Amino acid sequence: MKLFIITFLMFIGFKNSYGQKLLVDYSQMSKEEQLVTKLELRTLEWSRLHQLDSLAFILPDDYVGIFSSTGDKKYSKKDALSFSNDFVLRSYEVFNVVANSIKPDVIVVTYHMIQDGENGDGAKWPKKISSTATYVKRYGKWFVKFYTEAIMEN
Known about the structure:
Layout: H1 2-11, E1 14-15, E2 21-22, H2 31-48, H3 52-58, E3 64-67, E4 73-75, H4 77-86, E5 88-103, E6 106-118, E7 128-138, E8 141-151
Parallel strand pairs: 2-5, 3-8
Antiparallel strand pairs: 1-2, 3-4, 5-6, 6-7, 7-8
């Protein structure tokens, strides 16, 4: 019975401290995959709350981001931080989260997200996207090296 309860708790969705819904099953992930997944999910809150110092800390100088909300434009670290300061992300729901260790110093996190957001100019974001973040470990610290998202059917 105890094992059932623990397993059940790993599969249920929960809301983070800001009320965003996260559906994550950490039971099949290694400790490093769990750490990187939690870090990736934190970036959503940092972005939503415009906490650029926290976001800048995990983006290396050679970061590349491609966002469906901007017509798949390629962003550098500087561009991404500027873009993150201008948009509005009101809410999001994350599900189908998977983390894969490619090498000991590379982990890829993929997930689907339903979001309510818009660019600084008021252009609405796609409601449902699929995201991929590639993390690299440098000097004992994890950095998000590459991020991309694709629009899913709404």
